[in-house]
# Entry
Amino acid sequence: MSKHLLNMPFVKKGWEKEGVTAKEFIDNIATNKYYGKNIDLAGGVLISMVWSVFISTFFLVKKAFQLAYEINSFHFFLLMIPAYLICYFYVFRKNIYLKHFEFYEKWSKHIKRRNIIITFLSILFSVALFAFSILFEF
# Structure
């Protein structure tokens, strides 16, 4: 968040009224483990990845079995429902992901770096799978 934004009178009154510093105010907005924007972003990325794997699989199965089935926008929406439900039940319900934060904080830098690379590669794989399936679809 911009330093200038934090010094605007109405913003400054807000965080001073709560009795916190500017850094704590930013942490509450961005990095709070319960409702921070980073959690929202990570949830969106996770749901999008699962959804893209579903769509890609749908396209590849359709092409592999040469199904004469027309795909429209309803199918894209319909496959978003199981993607959301899977993410909700395995990650977000009862804040299951919070249990893992303590576990992740104990990792060494080497393990963190390795897992960041694995995560990046899995995101890259799901995007590539989606692009590959689209190429075969048309």
